[in-house]
Amino acid sequence: MEEERLFTERQRFNQIWLWLLLLGINIRFLFNLYQQLIYGQHGSSEGLNTNDLCIAAGISLLVTAIFLSSRLETVITSDGINVRFFPFQLTFKNYTWDKISKSFVRHYHPLTEYGGWGLRFGVFGSGKAYNVSGNKGIQIIFTNGSKLLIGTKKPTEVEDTLKMINHLDY
Which of 78, 87, 114, 161 could form a disulfide with 120 if both were Cys (CB 3.0 to 4.6 A apart)? Predict the structure, then answer.
């Protein structure tokens, strides 16, 4: 990505229900662990021993840390579109304009088209998707016919950038 950045966006998971769910799970495991370690009470309805409860709490905290550190980064340059879904991809994936036959912004349905948010593989020819929230995305159709959708919270800015560099198709 040596080229000048014409558009940059960084997104994170911001669904309130997700954070409440993770918070509730962590509080439950940590409270049960606290009761077992401090008071020797087994308040866990699952009947987990202390070691298993430590492992479950650790996994719960690790999953939360992954969600906290996750971010979708999109960069558009005159060379192409670059995307990274950190921490699952440490480097940007570069899609050059010569491999892209069409690019445009569209409304999509994350649950029905891709089964949710994250790094997803759609069914029925939807292709791959990188998304963390919302329902607007940059649809890319490659010269080989495969598809990629990159979620965006800045659809107007993306369209303006693609227009500016003459890569906006409808």
Answer: 114
Distance CA 45, CA 64 (A): 22
Confidence class for position 1, pLDDT limits 50, 70, 90: low
Q: What angle do CA 83, 112, 151 make, to 5 degrees?
A: 20
Write the pLDDT tens digit of every residue in 2-33. Answer: 568 899 999 988 888 888 999 999 999 888 88
Given 69, 92, 108, the domain boundary residue is: 69
Whole-model pTM?
A: 0.81
Name the H helices within the chain. 16-34, 50-69, 110-114, 155-164
DSSP codes joined into one string, 65-89: HHHHH-EEEEEEESSEEEEEEETT-
Confirm whether 170 is domain-assigned.
Answer: no
pLDDT at 162: 94
Edge-to-edge strand ranges of the sheet holding 147-151: 100-107, 136-142, 147-151, 128-131, 118-121
